[in-house]
Amino acid sequence: MSASWVVDVLFWLLAAGSLVTGWLVFRTDSMVRAAFWLLASFVGVGAMVIMLGAEFIGIVLILMMAGEMLIMAIIMVMFMMNPAGLNPMFMVHQHRASIVAGTTAFLGLAIVAVLTSFPDRPVASGVDATEQLGFELLGGSMLAFQTAGVALLSTMIGAVVLANRQGRYGSADEGSIEPDLDPEPSAEDPGSGTVSDAAGGRS
Amino acid sequence: MTGQGVHPMVAVTLIGGLLTVGVYIVAVLDATLRALVAGHPLQVGSVLTGPIRRAALLATTASGDTERPDAQGWALAPALLAGLAAVALATVPLTPQVSVADPSTGFVVFSAAIAFVMIAVFLHGWSPNSPWPLHGAYRYGAQALAFQIPFLLAMLATTLPAESLQIGEIVRAQEPLWNVVRQPLGLPLYLVVGVGVSFWGPLNLPDAADLAGGTTAESSGVGALLWQVARAAMLVAVAAMGAAAFLGGWWGPWLPAPVWMALKTLVLLAALVASRHLIARVRLERFVVICWVVLIPLALVNVFVAGAWLL
């Protein structure tokens, strides 16, 4: 149906594209541009995963990265107080440590890639990988995936609770402070237990 | 496996042609509904030629410029949005025999296209390096992140009767009963989100008039034209997928399959376009709260109802 050289060319184009856009993440001078170059890199990786026959995983990777990179860009701009993210800024810091960390990680991954004997089991053309993945997720690997799912859900609920303005000890606007460990209200501090008095007593 | 793949050139021509016709229909529907709602006499000639005149005017207008824009991103955004509309429409099976792309993960491909709309809109608002467009971009970020989950859940419920993520299978599973009957909450949820995806009418928050045009505040000329065309193309893709996923796609008595598909798409397109003239613009804060507090629980109920139907 499709000539194999087309597949080869496509693969190398995607691979080169992912590398170049990944490199551009560190060459650009804007956080929003960096996030979008990273997104482009991940889309290339997702497309290569699709070419490997893992259609569902590849497309889900691309789907998830859209939202994640946008959130990342907005959060970075918020933290850096760079209102638009368009103002040029230096994106690379701590050169020596970064070079050491980058080289070590590259060598480690390269050694693994060269020394590992990857399995070579071509999938028959009639197999629907999406269906098989579904049966695996809700069959043999159900416990692992459901455990991870519940853990992620509780993390999300925890994050929402932490970010909530109405904290456990009162509104964050008024400075919510946990009560003293000493449960006995002392004689000279009859009002201890209320938020404002606890704050006053500590200062 | 359904919908034998068509030749790439045929696919490109088909999607391009359908989107061109669809965008023109959106413009005509918009003018017609505006006249009907306002009670003006319908001037057929001006309704039919108006869109072409406006497009010609925009195409010949000089493009404006801002101080230090991200020129590439600014040029890319309308093309990205139009491309996403094409990807989304490509996953919709048109007839039992013809579907441009009907992979076993069609639902995920369509969702990925919808998710990337927020990248396109954010890029369009961020790149001009100007305050109003940037406000629009941030607005759409909040809006899109809020409607993503109701959208995914509403669409996910339609994959349950089909036992497949393939859109062709979703349509085929509706032969006995359309999803709009089986899952009464699904279509309303989908339409709310569909209006949001195309930032149209009541949910046109990123390009709203209260932001002096939002992400389009600095656009003029060809860029503004392409952005409007791409947005209308997104409406067409959303309506076509709604017809396939909820209104039974090509199923229907007496008429041939493609006619049914076109009719259902037109009905949904008219409903989406009419929202602009019938419903006032919603405040962003209210919409975000409604999404998280009302629409997500409703969408979950919808999934449970769809699951209970199968038991």
What do these coordinates show?
The complex is a heterodimer of chains A (203) and B (311). By secondary structure, chain A is mostly helical. Helix content of chain A is 65%, strand content 2%. Chain A has helices spanning 4-27, 31-51, 55-80, 95-115, 129-137, 142-163, 195-202; strands at residues 166-167, 170-171. Chain A has a two-stranded antiparallel ribbon. Mean pLDDT of chain A is 81; it is low at 192-203. The longest helix of chain B is centred in the middle third of the chain and has 32 residues, at 131-162. By secondary structure, chain B is mainly alpha-helical. The model of chain B has no long low-confidence stretch (mean pLDDT 88). Chain B has helices at 8-38, 44-60, 71-90, 106-126, 131-162, 167-172, 179-182, 186-197, 221-245, 257-278, 284-310. Chain B is globular, with a radius of gyration of 19 Å.
Fold blueprint:
The complex is a heterodimer of chains A (203) and B (311).
Chain A: H1 4-27, H2 31-51, H3 55-80, H4 95-115, H5 129-137, H6 142-163, E1 166-167, E2 170-171, H7 195-202
Antiparallel strand pairs in A: 1-2
Helix pairs in contact in A: 1-2, 2-3
Chain B: H1 8-38, H2 44-60, H3 71-90, H4 106-126, H5 131-162, H6 167-172, H7 179-182, H8 186-197, H9 221-245, H10 257-278, H11 284-310
Q: In terms of per-residue confidence, which ranges of chain A show pLDDT below 50 for 5 or more consecutive residues? A: 192-203
Question: What Rg of chain B do the Cα atoms give?
Answer: 19 Å
Biggest sheet record of chain B: none
Query: SSE order of chain A in H/E notation?
Result: HHHHHHEEH
Q: What structural class do helix, strand and pairing data of chain B support? A: mainly alpha
Q: Got a strand count of chain A?
A: 2
Main interface pair?
A-B, 26 and 26 residues
Concise structural overview:
The complex is a heterodimer of chains A (203) and B (311). Chain A is mostly helical and 203 residues long. Helix content of chain A is 65%, strand content 2%.
